[in-house]
Write a structure and sequence with these properties.
By secondary structure, the chain is α+β, with helices and mostly antiparallel strands. It has one domain: Beta Barrel (OB fold (Dihydrolipoamide Acetyltransferase, E2P)), CATH 2.40.50.140. Strands 1-3-4-6-5 form a five-stranded mixed barrel.
């Protein structure tokens, strides 16, 4: 059986990092992913909001370096959890357990985004996180692709 997914999107909120009783880091956040097809009745792209969970070192890096609005690539597997609410109803939660995360924006892009967020409103924002560490096997720099560069176009 194959259970593998690859997603690219922007964080909808700051990550929430915590530690299990055994000291293992776990971080959760959600990303907004535009659908590559179709628009709603007002002409806006349709967007899915997907919950992401990371563990161990990946969780620590995500908790330390990601923030609301950051563009990320996520590779992982889909997991379904079942639970019972306080009023006795059975529920299911669908989430992606991320095995790899790619930081898809440069420091300059992140600083511009954070400046726009600060100028958008009076809410207090935490200082920007430090630059992610450089990994020698991280591969080439991300390519900046704007909407006009999409070879598949808006369908």
């Amino acid at each position: 059986m194959i259970n593998n997914c690859v997603l690219v999107g922007r964080l909808t909120r700051d990550p929430e990092m915590r530690y299990t009783q055994n000291g293992i880091a776990v971080t959760s956040f959600s990303i907004a992913v535009d659908r590559p097809f179709g628009r709603d009745e007002e002409g806006n792209k349709q967007t899915d909001f997907i919950d992401i969970v990371t563990w161990r070192k990946t969780a620590e890096l995500a908790g330390q370096y990601l923030g609301k609005g950051a563009m990320v690539g996520v590779e992982g597997r889909i997991q379904v959890r079942s639970y019972t609410t306080q009023d006795g109803q059975q529920r299911r939660a669908y989430e992606v357990v991320a095995e790899r995360i790619a930081f898809l924006e440069s420091k300059a892009e992140r600083e511009r985004r954070e400046a726009r967020q600060q100028s958008a409103g009076p809410q207090a924002t935490p200082p920007p996180p430090p630059e992610p560490p450089a990994f020698p096997d991280a591969g080439p720099e991300p390519v900046d692709v704007t909407d006009g560069d999409d070879p598949f176009g808006d369908q």
